[in-house]
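# nightly structure sweep
# worker-07 picked up a monomer target from the shared queue
# config: single-sequence mode, recycle default, output format = structure tokens
# input follows
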Amino acid sequence: MCYLIAAAVVVAFYALCGIRIAQEYERGVIFRLGRYSSVKGPGLYWIAPIIDRAWTLDLRTRTVAVEQQETITRDSVTIKVNAVLWYRIFEPARAVVQVQRYGDAVYQLALTSLRNIIGQHVLDEVLKERDKINGTLKEIVDTATQDWGIHIEMVEMKDVEIPGGMQRAMAREAEAIREKRARLIKAEAESEASEKLAAAARLVAANPAALELRRMQMVSEIGAEHNTTTVVLMPSEMIGMGSALAKLAAAG
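# output follows
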């Protein structure tokens, strides 16, 4: 009887030692005598102690900061750039069987891919087309990690640090572009104003009464300023008569 009780205790202890609990976001990769067996979880599952071994993997999205890298663009400008990578495991068995330390593997792959893709673009593209570069980088890394059962969700370049001399050169270039734009706008405004003035002159020449009205309006505007300026207006007929006398004198 004692032997039966002892055997029962041993069996119960053996059974209890094999109980495992996986959270909703976890999976257990089971190896039986060194060979891959199955994936367990989430929830309660059992493995055979001594015979089975379980690797528990977290399936949640992970965030990895890719350290700042000094690299050279296609137009031979040395810059420093870093990035952030988000990935998750979609095939736990592959992440254990196909690659050793999948976290380090993903990080190193992102690191080298970042350096390579920066070297394929000029500085202006790196600064202005980040979304395009991020998409290309994501596609490269994701394609390489598919065999590892890992999906790259997003890659984003955080900061791009360029040399001080290049920053000053870019500032001068931007200032020159703004000055050019301002001069063009001013020239267009002057051209438009001259056209308006020419049209107004033609209209006044065709309608002498309009000139008189403008003269009267000018007098009222001067009076509204409370100044001491005295304005003597000459009728437009006298101006016309003066022009006619000048022509007669020139003809004689």
